[in-house]
Amino acid sequence: MRNFVVFDLDGTLLDTLPDIAGAMNRVLFRHGLPQHPEESYKLFTGNGAKVLTRRALAGYEALLDTVYPEYLADYGAHNRVDTKPYAGIPELLEALGKRGAALMVFSNKDDADTRDVVSHYFPGVAFAAVAGSRPDLPLKPDPAALFRMMEALDLKPEDGVYLGDTVMDMQCAKAAGLYAVAALWGFQTREMLEAEQPDRFIAHPLELLDVAAERFPSR
Known about the structure:
- By secondary structure, this protein is an alpha/beta fold.
- The protein is 43% helix and 16% strand.
- The chain has helices at 17-30, 41-44, 49-57, 64-77, 89-98, 111-121, 144-152, 167-176, 190-194, 208-215, and strands spanning 4-7, 14-15, 84-85, 102-110, 129-133, 160-164, 179-183, 200-202.
- A six-stranded parallel sheet has the order 5-4-1-6-7-8, with helices on both faces. A two-stranded antiparallel ribbon has the order 2-3.
């Protein structure tokens, strides 16, 4: 038996909104299209970059096949400009690592971008697995990719906790049989998350240590 924690990335570990909004708005500007306030991107994210692009286009969806690859290229080149870990996240990861928990990142962000920002912002963290969206696997809330990671590491659902900030995360956690913890510092509101009935809400990353103390037997 090994305890583990699955983390969403955008809005959970990292505040990526400035770089996401910046990249998309630059592409929209180059095409003479309306741009959006940074805050609007909180509701555009969560379902992968293609859906993000479609939502940002809002009425100009015919340009999706042009704008989508341009956004991926721009974001890939500028995904480490204003992004930053949320306060308390580095300390949380260090404390969980000392407890012996396996740490995993599971995101709907493009896989290459997921690995890029995780390795850049958390170079000292020995994640057991890091995965973003791939064309051969469905996006969250489908747990197929998560099940594949868990199987590779011989992890059991009853030993895991899932921390995320979106409805999609809560749905994925429940579909995978993990203890679902909703992060209130992220991109979606408490009201949105309440509809999914998470097992726990936390307002600060370090509160997850209390969850770990309850869920994981002491070593």
